[in-house]
Design goal:
heterodimer, A: 424 residues, alpha+beta, 2 domains, nine-stranded mixed beta sheet, two-stranded antiparallel ribbon, 11 strands, 53% helix, 20% strand, B: 286 residues, alpha/beta, six-stranded mixed beta sheet, 27% helix
C-alpha cells in the first residue's frame, strides 16, 4: 500500500499545474468552512461573555417575575436562606454566592486623565468570595469603616465598553487594570439622569475588575447592603433589601450546566442570562449552519470539478491503466490508485485552504483589534480559529474529493486491459 | 509410491506435501503452456473486448479459432501470421488479460479457462512478463521507476525493491542510465527498460508483441540477442509475436497463424525455423 500511495503521489505531481488547478475549489471551500466555524465560535464567545456577561462555568439565577417593562412582580419562590440551601445541594454545583441589587438608579462621577466621566449605573452587593480571584490586593474587597472609601469591583464588560467608546472618542489611552486599580470616583446612590430622589453620595475605590459581576454597574461587598439600607432609610427612601436578589452558581465544570439549569427550573427559579444566551447561541448557530451549507456547496462544486478532471485523466491514461493491469494490478488496486489521486487533490486543497484561513484569521483579528481596541482583550478573538476548525475543513474537503473520485476510479478499474493496450 | 515426500510452504505460509520423483521415476516435466481447442470470439462491429456472449450480438467473429498447441518450459517460440490472424489475441489469453470463449488453457499447471479475476491478477503478477512493440513506458518517469512498476502492485518481499530493479537494469546493460528519464533514452534503450520491467518479478513466461518492430536493424539485433540470452541463461520461456527475420531465426519453433487458426502446432515438435516466412513484412501491431 505504501508503494501504491507513493505512485499516486508521484503521478499527481507529475502534472503539478493540473493538480493545483483541481485543488483550488477545495481550498476555497475548506477556507470558507474553517473561517465560518471559527467566526461563529468567536462571535458567540464575544457576545456571551462581553455583551451578556455569561461565563461557561457559572449560572446567575433569579426569582421568577411577571410584568411589563419595568413593572415586574416576583411570581415565584423568593431567594431566602432555605432556597439557597436547596440550590447548593444540586448536583454539579460547586458554590453559591449571594447578590443583592440596590434598586435605586444611581450614577458615577469620575475623572480619567483630566476628562470628566458620568454614567448611570445600578449597584449590586456581592459575596466577596465570588470575585476573590479578581481582586488586585487580597482582602481589599471587604466592609470598611464609614470614613474609608467603599471598595468596588467593576465589570469587565464596562471596561470594554469604555475602551470602545469613551477612550476612543476622547483620545485617551485604553483603560486596563494597571491604570485604574486604586483610583477613586464618586457614586451617587439614588440619583440618576432619570430620577433624583433621596440619595447618598460616597467615595469609592476600584479594587478589581471581574467578569463575574453584574454588567450594569459597580459591585460592592455584601456587607455594605445593610449599611446602605440604613443610610437610605435615614434619607426617607424606605428601602428594604432582600437576603438575595440573585445568586451566582459556580459549576464544578461547564458540562453540568444543562443539569443545573434543569434543577433551577424545577425549584421555580429562572436564569434569564442563560435564556438569553440560549437564544443568542441558537441564532448564531443557525446562521453558522446556513453559511456552512454555502461552504459545503462550494465543496460540492469543487468535487464536480475534481470528478471531471479525474475522468479526463482516466481517459488520457487508459493505456497506462492497461499496463498497470498487465503487470499485475488488480481492479481494486487501480481503483485505490485513482481514489488516492483524488485524495492528493483534496489534501492539497485542504492544506492550502487551511493556510488561507489562518492568514485571513490573523488579518481579521488584527483589523478588529486595531479598530475596536479592548474588544479582544482577555484573549477574545472575533475569528476564534482552533485546530478543530481547520481539521473540520480539511476533513470535509478530503471527503468531497474522495467522493468525487469514486466514479472516475470505478471507470479506471472497469477498463479492459487487453482492449486499451491494443488501442494505445 | 515412488520418490520421496517433500514439504514446502507457499508464499502465504500454507504447507503443501508432495511426492518428489526419484531419479528412477523422473517423468518429463509438464509443458508450461497447454492449449486445447482454444477459441476467442468477439461481436462484429463492437469493441474487441465485447464478449461474444453479449445478448443480441448479431455477428460473431472468431479472433482465435480452435488453437491447440503446447509450449515446453524453456522454449523460445515465435508466432507469425498476417495482421488480424489472432496473434495478439493469443498473447492476451496467455497473459491472463482476457479469457477464452471456449477451449482449455493451462499455464504452469493452472487452468486459466475458468480462472477467477484474482487468479488472473496473480498469474500476471507472478508468472508472466510483457514486452510491447511500443514499449508502454511512462516517459516522465526514470528507467528505474518504470522497472519498479510491477513491484508497486506486488511487493517482492526483498529488502529493497530498488536494488532488485537496478539488478535487472544491469542485466540488460542499462545500469548507468537507471536514473535518466525514459524520454531521454533511445528506442533500443527503451525496449531494454521494458525487458527489465518484464523480468523484475522473475516470470516463467515472457510474452513479447513485436519486440523489435519499432527498432532499426542494428538495435533489433541487440534486443534479439538479449532475449536469446535471457531464454538460454535464465531458462525463461519466451513466446514472441514477430516478423523480424533475426527473431524468427533465434526462435526454436514457429507457430504460424492464419485467420485465427494455427497452421503448425499441436505437440511440441521443436521445429527449427530455417528461414523467415515469405510474408515477413513488418506490420503495425493491431
Amino acid at each position: 500500500m505504501t508503494a501504491l500511495r507513493s505512485l499516486a503521489w508521484r503521478d499527481a505531481w507529475a502534472a503539478p499545474g493540473r493538480t493545483v488547478l483541481l485543488s483550488v475549489g477545495v481550498a476555497v471551500g475548506v477556507a470558507a468552512l474553517a473561517l465560518i466555524l471559527a467566526l461563529s465560535s468567536g462571535v458567540e464567545s464575544i457576545v456571551l461573555r462581553k455583551v451578556l456577561g455569561v461565563l461557561p462555568d457559572q449560572l446567575v439565577v433569579e426569582p421568577q417575575t411577571t410584568g411589563v417593562g419595568p413593572l415586574q412582580i416576583t411570581s415565584g419562590p423568593a431567594l431566602d436562606d432555605a432556597m439557597i440551601a436547596r440550590v447548593s445541594t444540586l448536583s454539579g454545583v460547586k458554590a453559591v454566592y449571594r447578590r443583592v441589587r440596590i434598586p435605586l438608579p444611581s450614577h458615577i462621577n469620575a475623572e480619567y486623565n483630566g476628562k470628566a466621566f458620568y454614567t448611570d449605573v445600578l449597584v449590586e452587593a456581592v459575596d466577596p468570595q465570588l470575585v476573590e480571584a479578581d481582586i488586585a490586593t487580597p482582602g481589599a474587597f471587604t466592609l470598611r469603616s464609614e470614613a474609608d472609601p467603599v471598595p468596588v469591583v467593576l465589570p469587565s464588560a464596562m471596561i470594554d465598553v469604555l475602551n470602545m467608546g469613551f477612550t476612543v472618542n476622547t483620545g485617551l489611552p485604553a483603560i486596563n487594570p494597571s491604570v485604574i486599580i486604586g483610583r477613586h470616583f464618586t457614586l451617587n446612590l439614588g440619583s440618576s439622569s432619570f430620577k433624583v430622589g433621596p440619595n447618598v453620595s460616597m467615595r469609592c475605590e476600584i479594587v478589581g475588575i471581574s467578569p463575574r459581576v453584574f454588567v450594569g454597574g459597580p459591585s460592592i461587598p455584601l456587607g455594605y447592603a445593610p449599611r446602605f439600607d440604613q443610610m437610605l432609610k435615614a434619607q426617607g427612601a424606605g428601602l428594604t433589601l432582600p437576603p438575595a436578589s440573585s445568586l451566582t452558581i459556580l459549576l464544578k465544570s461547564p458540562s453540568y450546566l444543562p443539569a443545573v439549569a434543569e434543577g433551577i427550573r424545577a425549584l421555580g427559579l429562572t436564569a434569564p442570562q442563560q435564556e438569553k444566551a440560549r437564544s443568542v447561541t441558537a441564532v448564531i448557530r443557525a446562521i453558522t449552519l446556513m453559511l456552512s451549507m454555502f461552504a459545503g456547496l462550494v465543496l460540492v462544486v469543487a468535487g464536480t470539478g475534481i470528478g471531471n478532471g479525474l475522468a479526463l485523466m482516466v481517459k488520457d491514461e487508459a493505456g497506462e491503466i492497461g499496463l498497470f493491469r498487465a503487470v499485475g494490478a488488480s481492479r481494486g488496486q487501480v481503483r485505490a490508485l485513482y481514489l488516492m489521486r483524488a485524495g492528493v487533490v483534496g489534501l492539497t486543497g485542504g492544506v492550502a485552504g487551511g493556510a488561507v484561513a489562518l492568514a485571513m484569521t490573523w488579518a481579521v483579528n488584527s483589523d478588529v483589534g486595531y479598530w475596536v481596541p479592548g474588544l479582544l482583550e482577555g484573549g477574545e478573538r472575533v475569528v476564534a480559529m482552533t485546530p478543530l476548525h481547520l481539521l473540520a475543513g480539511l476533513g470535509f474537503g478530503l471527503a468531497a474529493s474522495l467522493a468525487a473520485g469514486l466514479i472516475p476510479a470505478q471507470q479506471a478499474a472497469g477498463l479492459e486491459p487487453a482492449s486499451v493496450l491494443r488501442e494505445r | 509410491m515412488e520418490g520421496r515426500l517433500q514439504r514446502r510452504q507457499n508464499r502465504w505460509g500454507v504447507e503443501r506435501v508432495f511426492h518428489a520423483p526419484s531419479a528412477f521415476s523422473r517423468r518429463p516435466p509438464l509443458p508450461l503452456i497447454e492449449c486445447s481447442h482454444l477459441c476467442r470470439t468477439f461481436s462484429e462491429g463492437a469493441s474487441r473486448s465485447t464478449d461474444e456472449s453479449v445478448e443480441g450480438a448479431s455477428t460473431r467473429r472468431p479472433a482465435l479459432a480452435d488453437a491447440t498447441f503446447t509450449v515446453e518450459r524453456g522454449e523460445f517460440v515465435a508466432v507469425v501470421g498476417p495482421s488480424g490472424s489472432g496473434k495478439s489475441t493469443l498473447l492476451t489469453l496467455l497473459g491472463g488479460l482476457d479469457r477464452p470463449t471456449t477451449g482449455r488453457l493451462v499455464i504452469d499447471g493452472v487452468d486459466m479457462s475458468n480462472a477467477t479475476e484474482a487468479e488472473l491478477d496473480r498469474h500476471r503478477r507472478e508468472r508472466v512478463g510483457f514486452i510491447f512493440q511500443s514499449f508502454h513506458l511512462n516517459p516522465r518517469r526514470t528507467a528505474l521507476e518504470n522497472v519498479l512498476l510491477p513491484l508497486v502492485f506486488a511487493p517482492s518481499g526483498e529488502a529493497s525493491a530498488a536494488d532488485l530493479a537496478r539488478r535487472r537494469l544491469e542485466q540488460v546493460g542499462l545500469a548507468p542510465l537507471a536514473d535518466r528519464p525514459v524520454s531521454t533514452l533511445s528506442g533500443g534503450q527503451r525496449q531494454r527498460v521494458a525487458i527489465a520491467r518484464a523480468l523484475v518479478r522473475n516470470p516463467s513466461l515472457l510474452l513479447a508483441d513485436e519486440p523489435v518492430g519499432n527498432l532499426d536493424a542494428g538495435t533489433g539485433r541487440e534486443i534479439v540477442d538479449l532475449l536469446r540470452a535471457i531464454n538460454r541463461d535464465q531458462g525463461v520461456t519466451i513466446l514472441a509475436v514477430s516478423h523480424d527475420a533475426l527473431l524468427l531465426e533465434a526462435a526454436g519453433r514457429l507457430l504460424e497463424m492464419r485467420e485465427g487458426r494455427l497452421l503448425e502446432g499441436g505437440a511440441a515438435s521443436h521445429t527449427r525455423a530455417i528461414s523467415p516466412l515469405p510474408s515477413a513484412t513488418p506490420e503495425a501491431t493491431p
